[in-house]
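SEVERITY: medium
COMPONENT: batch folding queue
REPORTER: lab tech (J.R.)

DESCRIPTION
The queue accepted two submissions in a row. Attaching both inputs and their returned structure tokens so the on-call engineer can compare them side by side.

ATTACHMENT 1
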Amino acid sequence: MNIYDKNLGVVIDDAQLLADEARYSSHGDTVHYVDPPKIFRRCEGSYMYDSADVPFLDLQMWYSAVNFGYANKRLNDVLHRQIDLLPQVASQYLHQTRIELAKTIAVDARDKFGLDGRVHFNVGGAQAIEDSLKIVRNACNGKSLMFAFEGGYHGRTLGASAITSSYRYRRRYGHFGERAMFIPFPYPFRRPKGMTAEEYSDACVRQFARLFETEYNGVWDPKVNQAEYAAFYVEPIQGTGGYVIPPMNFFKDLKKVLDQYGILMVVDEIQMGFWRTGKMWSIEHFGVTPDVLVFGKALTNGLNPLSGLWAREELINPQVFPAGSTHSTFNSNPLGTSLGLEVIRMGKEMNYEKTVPEKGAHFLDGLRDLQKKHKEIGDVDGLGLALRAEICAEDGFTPNRELLDRMVDIGLAGDLTHNGKKMGLVLDVGGWYKNVITLAPSLDITHEEIDLGLSLLDQLLTKAKRAS
């Protein structure tokens, strides 16, 4: 398809662009999930538009990086002002919004967790995970062994992939530095028969605690009261793992074991932070206090790369973690920190703690109605606007990745209809079996747009089943 780009003053051919992509671009930087890859031209609110200007309702918002909608005017205006004021400054110098953003996050953490701490910035989620590994190693005498969850995902840099349970991300590169023991995560829909979700949660904690019973269980030396492992990396809700929400008692019970044996808890909020679940941090729902908390993605609404972490004062103060301990050229850049500061101001002013649970409940009710209509929807669940729909075979349990793949392809073809006009639907695939629709719509999505999304999902699933 040829279109005229008024900004460039040229005619752009999608077919030529795809040919150039196939010839000159790496396929390794997480593209080419669909064939052919989709080209989008513009975006606004909850929608992206292709070369034919067909609107696509986006229910994954750049893996939850754009929590506050595409082309959010308030945030775009902040970016424009910062470009005119101080767009660049080396991170060895200070600027106002860096200090204000660090203070805002640290004070918020003190109010919620009752602990003093400090904030450390970087440019991407995986990079912030790497920084957290350095803080943990530094605090734990160089220990490089970590606990993490089956189904967990923390990034694809060498250190982050070492604590991500999928071997696929490590297979070609070997092991580097960190190594992890992967612990079962209580997955309510796929729990053992005969157990309630809470009983399964209790069993997972008991099994973990057995590692410390005697020196022969593997990780604990009772003679010196020392663990071989330094920290447990947790996602309160598994992101790439399929938006799996554990029972509410799980993390309290797990934290008791960690505290007993001196294991740090590092909470990965990269995908669930900034009101995705109705709280600024999803760990707030579970009533535990982290030792380190890592954040990224929606901090700048996808407008500029910025990530970071908060850590307890005794782990990160300048006496134990001095200047230059870890560094990135673009960390704490003024474009990112000005946006991050405005995101937090806006989030509180918009009262997302009230509106997100309300919208999430409406969306979840609609998913349950769809589940009654389509027996292939084996499970639906959600916390705030982090929602899941598990696509299965007709038995409602056996994972059906093929059906979901067809749904994604049909959604991106842009051939769904609403009020007689063509529409598309953007979905994300997750889950242990890659059979889960992970839904992360804009936090500003309207109830009408939620109803539209449910209608399009109904069309999508109906078409995909007919095409099987």
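ATTACHMENT 2
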Amino acid sequence: MPKTIKPLTLELDRLEAMAESDYYNPYTIFEWPDALEEDRPWMSEDLVTLAGTEHWDALTREQQLALTRFEAVNFFSLNIHGIRELLSEVVLRIHTKTYADASEFLHHFIGEENEHMWFFAAFCLRYGKKVYPAGPAVGVNRIEGVGEAAGELVIFARILIFEEIVDYFNARMATDQALPHIAREINRVHHQDESRHVAFGRYIFTQLLEQVKENHPEDIPVLAKYLDAYLDYSIRSLYNPAVYRDAGLDDPLELRRQLLEHPARRLAHDRILNRTRKFLERSGLGVQGAKA
């Protein structure tokens, strides 16, 4: 754990009060049907990884609907893996000197994320009969050659990036009346909680970044390059060949390659990452800004 980072000064009373007033019992709030309709999408059609391409248009309606089902299970599986990672990091930091001011809120955070992981897994196992495995984190496992504050910032930046990408999808699907009710509700409830988590993540990110800029400004371009690579990794994780295989699509690996290079998908990535990239740029951690 960090020894040279100054304790963070955080005013989290409002977020703590919101967490308490918004509390719900995840084990009773949802009504789980025995099965979901297969004649309607489980994921918003404009969010699937083939959306906007000729590959989507070439599918039969039955194939399109099947793809939305497996994409929904993959998206919730990614949530499970992301939450497991962030919980393992946050638990190590609660009630330490550096994060003393955040510890009360972190109790809410840990509890809520554990509950999120439960209902995402419940959906996957009930309706998809599986949780897709996590893919390899190639090139983003660790950051080398930076100070302790930068190392800590990376932990919370990864959490923030994960939450902001997920929230983009949650906000859209929470109101999509084409989806089954349980799918909308899971996205709605998660979006409600993530609004607090994103606010907290940006707050703690900014505090750690101030220490990096003050003590180790040479770490800034290294951080910017790493976070840009992590954004790319996060987007690529949405494209799962196993999803395409389960949906009965031909040559899943080649399809993934073509989709990642497709102009329509690059525009979709820009929309998904727009909020996060703007935040990083304002913070001085956009790649171009860091090089200037």
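NOTES FROM REPORTER
The two ends are 32 Å apart (CA to CA).
No errors were logged for either attachment.
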